């Protein structure tokens, strides 16, 4: 089983900072046995090509894009297409993050179109799902995220689904003010995701206030195939330590 451990830098890091991180990652992984662990980093769009060029020296690390449009080309000012991010070196695309849904009008329809476009061009969609706090408080977390996933994957055949990564990121647990979820809180959602998608997608990841303190426990939850990490992995040392925990070293 592949264990995915990755990070999205969001709107952080200049080109110089991104290059320094990428060079440090290559050096930090030199001689390290990763086993079944698959690392990935998702820089801002300005740094995809630079980071991908450096990490080409260590092909074990995948590079992603934080967003891409569903059309291949056209009059979409300010947008980037899947072919464009692929040309820059991205091999996966983050889709449907809650911040994109809340602040930039992402809908189930546009998420579904982006998943399909990413698959069409041979890249890996990293589909983000997650419920707000009020849904959790009503005890509706599981049906909410299953519906999100179902709508995003609608129309895909089994082979296409097998290329999709799903990252469960409860909105109440992410970001600077997020509250770390307990293992007990995550057991039911992952049991449901595992029943519905276990073995049928490329992996089921967890993201939300992941830290060096809780990473090992999170990876031990049934049906968790990896971690999608924020702030803890923005510093190179934090990310390298997370990778060591995932490999058991």
How would the blueprint of this fold be written?
Blueprint (H helix, E strand, L loop, with lengths): L2 E6 L6 H15 L7 E6 L5 H8 L6 E4 L16 H7 L3 E4 L2 H7 L3 H13 L3 E6 L3 H5 L3 H12 L5 H4 L3 E4 L14 H15 L5 E4 L8 H5 L6 E4 L6 H12 L2
Parallel strand pairs: 1-2, 1-8, 2-3, 3-4, 4-5, 5-6, 6-7, 7-8
Helix pairs in contact: 1-2, 7-9
Structural class: alpha/beta
Radius of gyration: 17 Å
Into which percent range does the helicity of residues fall? 40-55%
The main β sheet shows up as: 8 strands, parallel, barrel
**Mean pLDDT metric:** 96
In the sheet with the most strands, the strands line up as: 1-2-3-4-5-6-7-8
CATH structural architecture: Alpha-Beta Barrel
Strand content: 15-25%
Shape: globular
Low-confidence stretches: none
CATH topology assignment: TIM Barrel
Distance between the termini: 17 Å
CATH class category: Alpha Beta
Compute the number of helices.
Answer: 11
* Whole-number tally of structural domains: 1
- Elements, N to C (H/E): EHEHEHEHHEHHHEHEHEH
Number of strands: 8
